[in-house]
Structure formats: structure tokens, C-alpha cells
Amino acid sequence: MAAVETNGGGGSNGTAGAGGAQVKSAVRTVELLEYFAGRPGMHSLAAVQEAVGYPKSSLYMLLRTLVELGWVETDATGTRYGIGVRALLVGTSYIDGDEVVAAARPALDRLSDDTAETIHLARLDGTNVVYLATRQSQHYLRPFTRVGRRLPAHSTSLGKALLSTYSDEQVRAMLPEQLPALTENTITDREKLIEELHAVREQGFAVDREENTLGLRCFGIAIPYRTPARDAVSCSVPVARLTPAHEQTVREALFDARDRLTMATRRL
To answer: pTM, whole model, 2 decimals?
Structure first.
């Protein structure tokens, strides 16, 4: 992560960004929290400084402030840093207050009952999807994705379902030509991904063919209460128990869930 350079004037630290002036200390605080959120565990000051590129002295003072406020925690030695409990409180409040998550609960429960598989509700955030709600599989061997996890949109059925609601040119503007591979099956060429998005639009749902996790196939469908869509729902099934009949059941249940979710969110 590169440091954000800012040029202040008249005694204020700020720079003109897409949304207007940015305060340097606020930008650095957010970048630090996002750094820790994306890298679980504890990290040394040197490792954090190498990643964010801030001057070590100002980085140390910012970390100490965040520790005192509970947003960052340290280990017993006081030399390693990680995300703090207050970040969890804010994330939980986002989920608890989200109208879509609340409205979607009955449909997610129904989809879970109909398929007996793991169900996810996720939201597009830039070029990633963020998981907002999960219903765990009724089977012993079940995939696990925690609420709040971020994954690249191009490698998930959720993300592909959402990207398919954008035009080809919009997708080209959003994604680089070469995409990172999470498994050997991940589509890494943007144009090949766009070709698949054409098929997603025609069939109405997207498929992750072990592109995010080996041994797991996922089916995703966008919720069209906005255009382009912002949220999608998916069903994940281990390939070991994915028969043609079960796949048909999953697809039909997803279309039913889409209709239910569309009705539940139409006024939001």
C-alpha cells in the first residue's frame, strides 16, 4: 500500500481527491486500519512501515494513538500491532443497521432450507465482494466464509453475478487486464472474464468452478433492486456431492431466492 501524499494550505493538511479535500491524518488512519483488517495477526512496526510507507516516527505516534483508543492492539511486548476490538464494534453496527441484510433474512433462511448448503449474501465493494450474511451448510463437510471477509469479485460467483450487471466497458475500466489467481482455475484474463459475463447475463446466474477454493463450486445470482446491482446471493457446494440433480435444485432455489429478495428489497 502506498502512502497518500497530501499538500495542505492555510494550515490544513489536505489534498483534492474524488470526494474533495482529504485530511492526511484521517487518510493514514483509515489506511492503517484497512492494512490490519486485510492481514490478520500481529505485525512489527518495521513490517507496517514497509507496507504503508509512512515515516517511522509519525507511524509510531499514530499507532500509539490508535492503541490508546482501542482501534489497534499490541502484544505482550508492546512491539507488535494488530486490529483492535473497536473495529469489530463498528463492523457489527454496519451489519446490524443494514436494511438489505435485515430484509434478506427470511429469503436466506428459505434458501438454506431448500438446498441444505452454505448460503452467502455479499456486496460489491470496488473490485471485491464483502460478505454480509451467511447460513452454514447442514452437512458436516461445509465451507466456511466469515461475515466481513473480502474476496476478489472475478474469482467468485457472487462477484461475477454482480459484474455482469455492468457493461463490458465498465468492467474494463474496473479491472486490470491481468487478474490475480486464487487457484489454478481462476480466470486471470479480463477479456475471458468478460466473455463469461456474457453467458452469466444470458443464463441469469454465475458459477465459480473452483476458482476461489479448490473442491468447492458456487452458484451466484444478483439481486436487481438497483442497476447496476450492488448485492448478490450464492450457494456453495463441495464438488464431491454436486450431482446434476442437486445442481438443478440449487439453481431453481437461487432463482426463487432472487425473486423473494427482489420483493423484500424493492422499497429500499
So the answer is: 0.74
